[in-house]
Amino acid sequence: MSINVLVVDDDKIVRDSMKIILSMDGDINVVGTSSNGDEAFEFCRHNRVDVALMDIRMPVCDGVLGTKKIKETFPSIKIIILTTFNDDEYIVRALKNGASGYLLKNISPDKIIKDIKAVHSGNMLIHSDVAKKIGELLSLEKKDNYSAYNLKNNEIKIMQLISDGYTNKEIAGKMFLSEGTVKNKISDILRKLNLRDRTQIAIYYLKGGKLK
Amino acid sequence: MSINVLVVDDDKIVRDSMKIILSMDGDINVVGTSSNGDEAFEFCRHNRVDVALMDIRMPVCDGVLGTKKIKETFPSIKIIILTTFNDDEYIVRALKNGASGYLLKNISPDKIIKDIKAVHSGNMLIHSDVAKKIGELLSLEKKDNYSAYNLKNNEIKIMQLISDGYTNKEIAGKMFLSEGTVKNKISDILRKLNLRDRTQIAIYYLKGGKLK
DNA sequence: TTTAAAGAATGACTTAAGTCATTTAGAGTG
DNA sequence: CACTCTAAATGACTTAAGTCATTCTTTAAA
To answer: Could you list the pLDDT tens digit for every one of the 212 residues in chain B?
Structure first.
């Protein structure tokens, strides 16, 4: 029971070399190659594919969209996104669409083979560089970010409470301060972060301390 | 160059059986066992550990906290969270703390061994069931949720703009409405969602339409 | 035609938010 | 002791937010 692999990349050299590399392993059977997401989807409709190795930047139909199409119709096909880029946007979108792996191209042949097998056995596999990004995307390192704006613990506490939806009076009650002091502190926060009002503070905070 | 593995679980039976299972593989060397996160941290300070298999629910110091402690002092040690539970809260917290893998306990011995090797080689590995959760956490079908409250497209659009930090006047300009109308519509939204003010709307929206 | 129903607008009103100058009190430093 | 820094508070003020009753359409239904 070998693993049927489809290679999807707009670059013919990559397609061919990938095919050669993967064919070195007895368990892997490269059943075809496609040059964009649409072709890959068509191929899947007419052939049995277990794992698709998918480039992300391709003309006509990119890897994200290709993943979506294939996954919608053939949820059992595992998709590994394979790219030279390390782009936040792509990671999230591809994972949302059901990609099972996210590997960088500069990886050794035997590692790719191992990874294909891991994904085929049902796991989700993410390259360590990419994994770091995901950690960040799951909102991380808030404190470092805040300290860059010289925010005090007190002020961060107020940001949290604003982001929980409390009024100034409620915040004052919880922190044993007067309402006026809370207002003043909010003014300080707004100045430091260059924001306009409490709603923007909540947005800023909930998005993990990243502006814009 | 075998992989030095530490098994962390409060249940002695799990510890022992895991040790036996892992020792069947020539590349894996179980160097020790601990019964909670603190013990594991202490063990890491005195022994060379490559990979720690960590249960999540343990007395004294649970797996999430254990991961944090170990990762802070020994970032090169890979940690695999191993649990019978499939809990959103834990997943995110453990990943934030730097866990490299998240596996469910009902997994075959040879698969655990494979996974340990995959993690040791630098990848992040997530069990497919857990991966689904992450996908949900990253995306979240907002629209279904909103329709439950009879929100109109217009009102959802206003929610979006509030959550981008705009004032009523700016929203009015973007939607070609008067400021008064925007105010009225916000009152409608607040009534439907049982919220108090625009900040709570933004919080509600940014958290994916989940109240509480 | 009458009658609703829904979208947008207006004006008057109340209140929470945010700004700012100023004051007070404690803690540390020279 | 005088000096400085900081945290907290106050009061007066401006403005954005939110509520509500009412009006004016337009569209659709009876």
So the answer is: 789 999 999 888 888 988 999 999 989 999 999 989 888 999 999 999 999 998 887 777 777 888 888 888 898 899 998 877 556 667 666 766 777 888 877 777 778 888 888 888 777 887 766 766 665 555 544 444 555 567 777 888 889 899 989 999 999 988 888 999 999 999 988 988 889 899 999 999 887 764 43
SS (H, E, C) A188-206: HHHHHHCCCCHHHHHHHHH
Q: Which CATH architecture is the domain A142-206 placed in? A: Orthogonal Bundle (1.10)
Of A111, A131, A202, the CB nearest to B203: A202
When CB atoms are compared, the residue of A134, A138, A206 closest to B206 is A206
Report helix, strand or coil for A187. Answer: helix
Q: Give the gyration radius of chain A's Cα atoms.
A: 24
- pLDDT tens profile B125-138: 877 667 666 655 55
pTM: 0.56
Q: What is the residue extent of each domain of chain B?
A: 3-138, 142-206
Look up residue A2 and give its DSSP letter: P
Of the candidates B130, B137, B162, the beta carbon closest to that of A199 is on B162
The Cα B46–Cα B173 span in angstroms is: 65
List, in sequence order, the alpha helices (H) in chain A: 12-23, 37-46, 63-73, 88-96, 109-120, 128-137, 142-147, 153-163, 168-175, 179-193, 198-206
How far is it, in rounded angstroms, from Cα B102 to Cα B85? 11
Residues of A in contact with B118 (CB under 8 A): 114-115, 118, 123, 125
B180: nearest nucleotide, CA–C1' criterion: C9
CATH architecture of B3-138: 3-Layer(aba) Sandwich (3.40)
Whether any strand C atom is under 7 angstroms from the Cβ of A183: the reply reads yes
Residues of B (15-74) placing their beta carbon closer than 7 angstroms to any atom of strand C are: none
Whole-angstrom Cα distance, residue A206 to residue B172? 25
- CA B154 to C1' C6, in angstroms, rounded, equals 13
Question: In this structure, which CATH number among 3.40.50.2300, 2.30.30.240, 1.20.1070.10, 3.40.50.150 belongs to the domain A3-137?
Answer: 3.40.50.2300
